[in-house]
Amino acid sequence: MQLNVLVLPGDGIGVEVTREAVRVLKAVADSFGHSLTLNEGLLGGIAIHQRGTPIPDETKELALKADATLLGAVGLPEFDTAPPDKRPERGLLGLRKALGVYANLRPVRSYRSLLDSSPLKNELVEGVDMIIVRELTGGLYYGTPRGISGSGAEERAVNTMTYTRSEIERVAHMAFQLAGRRRKKLTSIDKSNVLENSQLWRRVVTEVGRDYPDIKLDHLLVDNCAMQLVVGPKQFDVLLTENMFGDILSDEGAVLAGSIGMLPSASIGAKAPSGAWIGLYEPVHGSAPDIAGQNKANPLGAVGSIAAMLEYSFGLTEEAIAVNFAIEEVLNSGHVPADLKPADKPASTTEVGDALCRYISERKVPV
Ligand code: NAD
Fold first, then answer.
1. Which of 162, 283, 332, 367 has minimal CB crowding within 10 Å?
2. Where are the beta strands (DSSP E) in the chain?
3. Tens-place pLDDT, residues 302-327
4. Quick check: CB of 44 below 6 Å from ligand 1?
Protein backbone atom coordinates (compact mmCIF):
# COMPACT_ATOMS: atom_id res chain seq x y z
CA MET A 1 0.00 0.00 0.00
CA GLN A 2 1.10 3.58 -0.64
CA LEU A 3 1.24 5.57 2.64
CA ASN A 4 1.42 9.32 2.12
CA VAL A 5 2.12 10.93 5.48
CA LEU A 6 2.84 14.50 6.57
CA VAL A 7 4.94 14.95 9.71
CA LEU A 8 4.68 18.14 11.78
CA PRO A 9 7.16 17.77 14.63
CA GLY A 10 6.18 21.14 16.15
CA ASP A 11 7.94 22.31 19.30
CA GLY A 12 9.78 20.98 22.35
CA ILE A 13 9.54 17.23 22.83
CA GLY A 14 7.25 17.08 19.78
CA VAL A 15 10.44 16.94 17.71
CA GLU A 16 11.89 14.08 19.75
CA VAL A 17 8.79 11.90 19.96
CA THR A 18 7.84 12.28 16.29
CA ARG A 19 11.39 11.31 15.29
CA GLU A 20 10.90 7.94 17.02
CA ALA A 21 7.34 7.57 15.74
CA VAL A 22 8.55 8.09 12.18
CA ARG A 23 11.26 5.45 12.67
CA VAL A 24 8.54 3.07 13.82
CA LEU A 25 6.41 3.90 10.77
CA LYS A 26 9.39 3.22 8.50
CA ALA A 27 10.01 -0.09 10.28
CA VAL A 28 6.36 -1.05 9.72
CA ALA A 29 6.54 -0.07 6.03
CA ASP A 30 9.75 -2.12 5.56
CA SER A 31 8.50 -5.08 7.49
CA PHE A 32 5.06 -5.29 5.87
CA GLY A 33 6.10 -4.21 2.35
CA HIS A 34 4.38 -0.81 2.13
CA SER A 35 5.66 2.19 0.22
CA LEU A 36 6.01 5.28 2.41
CA THR A 37 6.10 8.91 1.24
CA LEU A 38 6.99 11.33 4.03
CA ASN A 39 6.79 15.12 3.94
CA GLU A 40 7.68 17.45 6.77
CA GLY A 41 6.08 20.82 7.58
CA LEU A 42 6.08 23.66 10.08
CA LEU A 43 3.45 24.19 12.77
CA GLY A 44 3.37 26.04 16.09
CA GLY A 45 6.21 28.04 17.63
CA ILE A 46 8.78 26.96 15.05
CA ALA A 47 6.44 28.17 12.28
CA ILE A 48 6.09 31.56 14.00
CA HIS A 49 9.87 31.82 14.16
CA GLN A 50 10.43 30.79 10.55
CA ARG A 51 7.30 32.10 8.77
CA GLY A 52 5.72 34.59 11.19
CA THR A 53 2.50 32.56 11.61
CA PRO A 54 1.64 29.42 13.63
CA ILE A 55 0.14 27.75 10.55
CA PRO A 56 1.68 28.74 7.20
CA ASP A 57 -0.40 28.18 4.05
CA GLU A 58 2.17 25.66 2.79
CA THR A 59 1.48 23.50 5.88
CA LYS A 60 -2.26 23.53 5.18
CA GLU A 61 -1.61 22.55 1.56
CA LEU A 62 0.69 19.71 2.58
CA ALA A 63 -1.86 18.46 5.11
CA LEU A 64 -4.68 18.53 2.56
CA LYS A 65 -2.58 16.48 0.12
CA ALA A 66 -1.53 13.87 2.70
CA ASP A 67 -3.53 10.75 3.60
CA ALA A 68 -2.69 11.33 7.25
CA THR A 69 -0.78 13.83 9.38
CA LEU A 70 1.36 13.08 12.42
CA LEU A 71 1.78 15.99 14.82
CA GLY A 72 4.23 16.12 17.75
CA ALA A 73 3.17 19.00 19.99
CA VAL A 74 3.06 22.78 19.83
CA GLY A 75 3.89 25.38 22.47
CA LEU A 76 6.91 27.42 23.49
CA PRO A 77 7.16 29.36 26.77
CA GLU A 78 8.28 32.54 24.99
CA PHE A 79 4.81 32.81 23.40
CA ASP A 80 2.88 32.36 26.65
CA THR A 81 1.94 36.05 26.76
CA ALA A 82 1.49 36.54 22.99
CA PRO A 83 -1.94 37.52 21.58
CA PRO A 84 -4.13 34.50 20.71
CA ASP A 85 -3.50 34.57 16.94
CA LYS A 86 0.26 34.64 17.49
CA ARG A 87 0.32 31.65 19.81
CA PRO A 88 1.58 28.25 18.68
CA GLU A 89 -1.64 26.56 19.87
CA ARG A 90 -3.58 28.54 17.26
CA GLY A 91 -1.76 26.47 14.66
CA LEU A 92 -3.37 23.31 15.97
CA LEU A 93 -6.90 24.74 15.83
CA GLY A 94 -6.21 26.06 12.32
CA LEU A 95 -4.99 22.66 11.19
CA ARG A 96 -8.04 20.85 12.59
CA LYS A 97 -10.26 23.34 10.81
CA ALA A 98 -8.37 23.05 7.51
CA LEU A 99 -8.66 19.25 7.62
CA GLY A 100 -12.34 19.34 8.61
CA VAL A 101 -11.83 16.81 11.39
CA TYR A 102 -14.90 16.56 13.60
CA ALA A 103 -14.24 13.65 15.92
CA ASN A 104 -11.49 13.14 18.43
CA LEU A 105 -10.70 9.54 19.24
CA ARG A 106 -8.80 8.64 22.36
CA PRO A 107 -7.96 5.00 22.74
CA VAL A 108 -7.56 4.12 26.43
CA ARG A 109 -6.05 0.78 27.28
CA SER A 110 -4.31 -0.63 30.26
CA TYR A 111 -0.90 -2.27 30.07
CA ARG A 112 -0.20 -5.01 32.58
CA SER A 113 3.23 -3.65 33.51
CA LEU A 114 1.76 -0.20 34.24
CA LEU A 115 -1.16 -1.34 36.38
CA ASP A 116 0.49 -0.01 39.53
CA SER A 117 0.78 3.48 37.98
CA SER A 118 -3.00 3.76 37.76
CA PRO A 119 -4.82 5.42 40.66
CA LEU A 120 -7.41 2.61 40.47
CA LYS A 121 -7.09 -0.89 41.88
CA ASN A 122 -5.34 -3.33 39.53
CA GLU A 123 -8.39 -5.57 39.14
CA LEU A 124 -10.49 -2.62 37.97
CA VAL A 125 -8.02 -1.45 35.35
CA GLU A 126 -6.63 -4.72 34.01
CA GLY A 127 -8.17 -5.42 30.61
CA VAL A 128 -9.48 -1.89 30.00
CA ASP A 129 -9.66 -1.31 26.24
CA MET A 130 -11.95 1.46 25.04
CA ILE A 131 -12.13 4.34 22.63
CA ILE A 132 -13.70 7.64 23.59
CA VAL A 133 -15.19 9.38 20.54
CA ARG A 134 -15.66 13.09 21.25
CA GLU A 135 -17.50 15.40 18.85
CA LEU A 136 -15.05 18.22 18.17
CA THR A 137 -16.76 21.06 16.33
CA GLY A 138 -20.11 21.77 18.02
CA GLY A 139 -21.79 22.07 21.40
CA LEU A 140 -21.15 24.58 24.16
CA TYR A 141 -17.64 25.55 23.04
CA TYR A 142 -18.78 27.01 19.72
CA GLY A 143 -22.49 27.84 20.16
CA THR A 144 -23.78 31.39 19.92
CA PRO A 145 -24.97 33.61 21.50
CA ARG A 146 -22.11 33.69 23.96
CA GLY A 147 -20.42 36.32 26.07
CA ILE A 148 -20.57 38.37 29.25
CA SER A 149 -22.77 41.45 29.46
CA GLY A 150 -24.29 43.84 31.98
CA SER A 151 -22.80 44.91 35.26
CA GLY A 152 -23.24 44.73 38.99
CA ALA A 153 -25.82 42.23 40.22
CA GLU A 154 -27.16 41.96 36.65
CA GLU A 155 -23.82 41.01 35.08
CA ARG A 156 -24.57 37.91 33.10
CA ALA A 157 -22.66 35.20 31.18
CA VAL A 158 -24.17 33.13 28.38
CA ASN A 159 -23.00 30.08 26.47
CA THR A 160 -25.14 28.10 24.09
CA MET A 161 -25.10 24.34 23.67
CA THR A 162 -26.17 23.66 20.13
CA TYR A 163 -26.11 20.69 17.75
CA THR A 164 -27.73 20.06 14.42
CA ARG A 165 -29.04 16.68 13.37
CA SER A 166 -26.36 16.37 10.68
CA GLU A 167 -23.54 17.08 13.14
CA ILE A 168 -24.81 14.31 15.40
CA GLU A 169 -25.43 11.90 12.54
CA ARG A 170 -21.92 12.10 11.06
CA VAL A 171 -20.11 11.48 14.34
CA ALA A 172 -22.58 8.76 15.30
CA HIS A 173 -21.96 6.94 11.99
CA MET A 174 -18.24 7.10 12.68
CA ALA A 175 -18.64 5.70 16.19
CA PHE A 176 -20.89 2.84 15.01
CA GLN A 177 -18.37 1.96 12.28
CA LEU A 178 -15.55 1.92 14.84
CA ALA A 179 -17.61 -0.29 17.15
CA GLY A 180 -18.18 -2.63 14.21
CA ARG A 181 -14.42 -3.24 14.01
CA ARG A 182 -14.18 -3.85 17.76
CA ARG A 183 -16.40 -5.56 20.33
CA LYS A 184 -19.57 -4.17 18.75
CA LYS A 185 -20.71 -2.19 21.75
CA LEU A 186 -21.49 1.53 21.67
CA THR A 187 -22.38 3.62 24.71
CA SER A 188 -23.73 7.07 23.90
CA ILE A 189 -23.41 9.68 26.65
CA ASP A 190 -25.82 12.55 27.21
CA LYS A 191 -27.77 14.45 29.84
CA SER A 192 -31.18 13.87 28.31
CA ASN A 193 -33.00 14.02 31.64
CA VAL A 194 -32.25 17.77 31.73
CA LEU A 195 -31.09 19.10 28.34
CA GLU A 196 -33.11 19.32 25.11
CA ASN A 197 -29.78 19.27 23.32
CA SER A 198 -29.15 15.82 24.75
CA GLN A 199 -32.69 14.69 23.92
CA LEU A 200 -31.99 15.37 20.25
CA TRP A 201 -28.58 13.70 20.61
CA ARG A 202 -30.14 10.53 22.05
CA ARG A 203 -32.93 10.43 19.46
CA VAL A 204 -30.58 10.88 16.49
CA VAL A 205 -28.01 8.36 17.78
CA THR A 206 -30.84 5.82 18.26
CA GLU A 207 -32.05 6.44 14.69
CA VAL A 208 -28.53 6.09 13.24
CA GLY A 209 -28.18 2.87 15.24
CA ARG A 210 -30.93 1.26 13.11
CA ASP A 211 -28.38 1.17 10.27
CA TYR A 212 -26.07 -0.94 12.46
CA PRO A 213 -28.22 -3.78 13.83
CA ASP A 214 -25.17 -5.82 14.89
CA ILE A 215 -23.96 -3.09 17.28
CA LYS A 216 -25.36 -3.10 20.81
CA LEU A 217 -26.29 0.50 21.66
CA ASP A 218 -26.71 1.76 25.23
CA HIS A 219 -27.33 5.28 26.49
CA LEU A 220 -25.84 6.55 29.72
CA LEU A 221 -26.24 9.86 31.51
CA VAL A 222 -22.96 11.74 31.74
CA ASP A 223 -22.91 11.84 35.54
CA ASN A 224 -23.39 8.08 35.71
CA CYS A 225 -20.70 7.62 33.04
CA ALA A 226 -18.20 9.63 35.11
CA MET A 227 -18.87 7.21 37.96
CA GLN A 228 -18.79 4.07 35.81
CA LEU A 229 -15.39 5.06 34.40
CA VAL A 230 -13.90 4.64 37.85
CA VAL A 231 -16.01 1.79 39.23
CA GLY A 232 -16.15 -0.40 36.10
CA PRO A 233 -14.14 0.93 33.13
CA LYS A 234 -13.89 -2.52 31.54
CA GLN A 235 -17.56 -2.44 30.56
CA PHE A 236 -16.88 0.14 27.80
CA ASP A 237 -15.91 -0.53 24.20
CA VAL A 238 -16.74 2.66 22.24
CA LEU A 239 -18.00 5.72 24.14
CA LEU A 240 -19.67 8.42 22.02
CA THR A 241 -20.17 11.88 23.40
CA GLU A 242 -20.60 15.55 22.56
CA ASN A 243 -17.80 18.09 22.83
CA MET A 244 -17.73 19.27 26.45
CA PHE A 245 -18.74 15.96 28.03
CA GLY A 246 -16.01 14.34 25.92
CA ASP A 247 -13.42 16.88 27.00
CA ILE A 248 -14.07 16.03 30.64
CA LEU A 249 -14.56 12.27 30.31
CA SER A 250 -11.50 11.77 28.10
CA ASP A 251 -9.24 13.27 30.76
CA GLU A 252 -10.85 10.99 33.30
CA GLY A 253 -10.15 8.07 30.96
CA ALA A 254 -6.58 9.31 30.50
CA VAL A 255 -5.53 8.64 34.07
CA LEU A 256 -6.42 4.97 33.68
CA ALA A 257 -3.35 4.49 31.45
CA GLY A 258 -0.82 5.66 34.03
CA SER A 259 1.15 8.48 32.37
CA ILE A 260 0.27 11.27 29.96
CA GLY A 261 3.27 10.28 27.85
CA MET A 262 1.48 7.01 26.97
CA LEU A 263 -1.64 8.47 25.41
CA PRO A 264 -2.30 8.63 21.67
CA SER A 265 -5.12 10.48 19.97
CA ALA A 266 -6.66 10.75 16.53
CA SER A 267 -8.82 13.51 15.12
CA ILE A 268 -10.69 12.31 12.07
CA GLY A 269 -13.28 13.67 9.73
CA ALA A 270 -14.28 13.24 6.14
CA LYS A 271 -13.38 10.17 4.13
CA ALA A 272 -10.82 10.39 1.32
CA PRO A 273 -11.76 9.00 -2.14
CA SER A 274 -9.95 5.81 -1.08
CA GLY A 275 -12.52 5.34 1.72
CA ALA A 276 -9.90 6.04 4.41
CA TRP A 277 -10.60 8.59 7.12
CA ILE A 278 -8.63 11.82 6.75
CA GLY A 279 -6.86 12.07 10.05
CA LEU A 280 -4.63 14.07 12.32
CA TYR A 281 -2.73 11.90 14.78
CA GLU A 282 -0.93 13.24 17.83
CA PRO A 283 0.02 12.30 21.36
CA VAL A 284 -2.20 13.86 24.01
CA HIS A 285 0.71 15.56 25.81
CA GLY A 286 2.13 19.02 25.07
CA SER A 287 5.63 20.21 24.22
CA ALA A 288 6.94 19.69 27.79
CA PRO A 289 9.49 22.52 27.86
CA ASP A 290 10.79 21.22 31.21
CA ILE A 291 12.30 18.12 29.58
CA ALA A 292 12.69 19.22 25.94
CA GLY A 293 16.03 18.52 24.26
CA GLN A 294 17.12 16.00 26.89
CA ASN A 295 16.25 12.79 25.03
CA LYS A 296 14.14 11.57 27.92
CA ALA A 297 10.56 12.14 26.71
CA ASN A 298 8.33 9.09 26.49
CA PRO A 299 7.60 8.56 22.77
CA LEU A 300 4.94 5.87 23.30
CA GLY A 301 1.97 8.26 22.98
CA ALA A 302 3.30 9.39 19.59
CA VAL A 303 3.99 5.80 18.58
CA GLY A 304 0.49 4.76 19.70
CA SER A 305 -0.77 7.53 17.41
CA ILE A 306 1.01 5.74 14.53
CA ALA A 307 -0.92 2.59 15.44
CA ALA A 308 -4.15 4.61 15.32
CA MET A 309 -3.14 6.08 11.93
CA LEU A 310 -2.45 2.63 10.50
CA GLU A 311 -5.82 1.40 11.67
CA TYR A 312 -8.15 4.34 10.97
CA SER A 313 -6.61 6.08 7.96
CA PHE A 314 -5.10 3.05 6.22
CA GLY A 315 -7.22 0.14 7.49
CA LEU A 316 -4.00 -1.78 8.29
CA THR A 317 -5.15 -3.65 11.37
CA GLU A 318 -2.35 -6.22 11.48
CA GLU A 319 0.27 -3.47 11.30
CA ALA A 320 -1.50 -1.52 14.07
CA ILE A 321 -1.49 -4.65 16.23
CA ALA A 322 2.25 -5.06 15.57
CA VAL A 323 2.93 -1.50 16.78
CA ASN A 324 0.78 -1.92 19.90
CA PHE A 325 2.45 -5.25 20.57
CA ALA A 326 5.90 -3.63 20.28
CA ILE A 327 4.78 -0.97 22.80
CA GLU A 328 3.71 -3.74 25.15
CA GLU A 329 7.07 -5.51 24.71
CA VAL A 330 8.95 -2.32 25.64
CA LEU A 331 6.82 -1.94 28.75
CA ASN A 332 7.30 -5.59 29.72
CA SER A 333 11.08 -5.26 29.28
CA GLY A 334 11.17 -2.75 32.14
CA HIS A 335 13.62 -0.54 30.19
CA VAL A 336 11.18 2.37 30.00
CA PRO A 337 11.38 6.18 30.06
CA ALA A 338 11.68 8.13 33.31
CA ASP A 339 7.98 9.14 33.51
CA LEU A 340 7.08 5.45 33.94
CA LYS A 341 9.37 5.24 36.98
CA PRO A 342 11.52 2.23 36.05
CA ALA A 343 13.32 0.33 38.78
CA ASP A 344 16.67 0.75 36.98
CA LYS A 345 18.24 3.45 34.79
CA PRO A 346 15.50 5.00 32.59
CA ALA A 347 15.52 4.40 28.85
CA SER A 348 16.16 7.42 26.62
CA THR A 349 13.68 8.42 23.92
CA THR A 350 16.04 7.03 21.29
CA GLU A 351 16.53 3.73 23.14
CA VAL A 352 12.78 3.23 23.27
CA GLY A 353 12.63 3.89 19.50
CA ASP A 354 15.47 1.38 18.91
CA ALA A 355 13.65 -1.31 20.88
CA LEU A 356 10.32 -0.68 19.11
CA CYS A 357 11.92 -0.91 15.65
CA ARG A 358 13.67 -4.13 16.66
CA TYR A 359 10.43 -5.72 17.89
CA ILE A 360 8.62 -4.70 14.72
CA SER A 361 11.32 -5.96 12.38
CA GLU A 362 11.36 -9.26 14.27
CA ARG A 363 7.58 -9.28 13.71
CA LYS A 364 6.84 -10.71 17.13
CA VAL A 365 3.09 -10.44 16.66
CA PRO A 366 0.88 -12.51 18.96
CA VAL A 367 -1.15 -15.25 17.28
P1 NAD B 1 2.71 19.01 28.85
O2 NAD B 1 1.88 17.85 28.44
O3 NAD B 1 3.66 19.54 27.85
O4 NAD B 1 3.56 18.60 30.16
C5 NAD B 1 2.95 18.30 31.42
C6 NAD B 1 3.94 17.46 32.27
O7 NAD B 1 4.01 16.14 31.73
C8 NAD B 1 5.37 17.99 32.23
O9 NAD B 1 5.97 17.80 33.49
C10 NAD B 1 6.07 17.15 31.20
O11 NAD B 1 7.45 16.99 31.41
C12 NAD B 1 5.33 15.82 31.33
N13 NAD B 1 5.26 15.13 30.04
C14 NAD B 1 4.44 15.45 28.99
N15 NAD B 1 4.65 14.63 27.98
C16 NAD B 1 5.62 13.78 28.36
C17 NAD B 1 6.29 12.70 27.72
N18 NAD B 1 5.98 12.33 26.47
N19 NAD B 1 7.25 12.06 28.41
C20 NAD B 1 7.55 12.41 29.67
N21 NAD B 1 6.96 13.40 30.33
C22 NAD B 1 6.00 14.09 29.68
O23 NAD B 1 1.71 20.15 29.34
P24 NAD B 1 2.03 21.65 29.79
O25 NAD B 1 3.31 21.70 30.55
O26 NAD B 1 0.78 22.11 30.42
O27 NAD B 1 2.20 22.47 28.43
C28 NAD B 1 3.45 22.78 27.82
C29 NAD B 1 3.20 23.43 26.47
O30 NAD B 1 2.54 22.52 25.60
C31 NAD B 1 2.27 24.66 26.55
O32 NAD B 1 2.76 25.62 25.64
C33 NAD B 1 0.92 24.12 26.12
O34 NAD B 1 0.10 25.12 25.56
C35 NAD B 1 1.34 23.09 25.08
N36 NAD B 1 0.36 22.01 24.86
C37 NAD B 1 0.24 21.56 23.58
C38 NAD B 1 -0.60 20.50 23.31
C39 NAD B 1 -0.67 20.00 21.89
O40 NAD B 1 0.19 20.34 21.09
N41 NAD B 1 -1.65 19.19 21.55
C42 NAD B 1 -1.31 19.86 24.34
C43 NAD B 1 -1.12 20.32 25.65
C44 NAD B 1 -0.28 21.39 25.90
1. 367
2. 2-10, 35-40, 68-73, 103-109, 129-135, 143-149, 156-160, 185-190, 216-221, 238-241, 264-271, 277-283
3. 999 999 999 989 989 999 999 999 99
4. no
- 113 within domain boundaries: no
One domain for residues 271 and 248:
no
pLDDT of residue 271: 76
Q: Which atom of ligand 1 is nearest to the CA of 76?
A: 32
Judged against a pLDDT cut of 60, whether residue 256 lies above it is answered with yes
Count how many domains the chain has.
2
What is the percentage of the chain residues whose pLDDT exceeds 90? 81
Instruction: Mark whether 241 and 267 lie in a shared domain.
Output: no
pLDDT value of residue 367? 40
Same domain (yes/no): 243, 331: no
Q: Give the end of a domain, one of 257, 278, 313.
A: 257
Candidates 268, 255, 350; CA nearest to 309 is 268
Could you tell me the distance, in angstroms and rounded to a whole number, from the CA of residue 171 to the centre of ligand 1? Answer: 28
Mean pLDDT, residues 65-71 taken together? 95
Ligand 1, residue 291: give the atom nearest the CA: 11
Decide: 82 and 68 in contact? Cβ < 8 Å.
no
Assess whether the C-beta atom of 91 lies below 6 angstroms from ligand 1: no
Give the pLDDT score at 303: 98
Q: Confirm or reject: Cβ of 43 under 6 Å from ligand 1.
A: no
Residue after which a domain boundary falls, among 257, 274, 293: 257
Domain containing residue 348: 1-107+259-367
pTM: 0.88
Q: Which atom of ligand 1 is nearest to the CA of 301?
A: 18
Ligand 1 close to Cβ of residue 261 (< 6 A) = yes
Q: Is residue 8 domain-shared with residue 45, that is, in the same domain?
A: yes
Q: What pLDDT is stored for residue 354 in this prediction? A: 98
pLDDT at position 200, please?
Answer: 98
Catalytic residues: 141, 191, 223, 247, 251
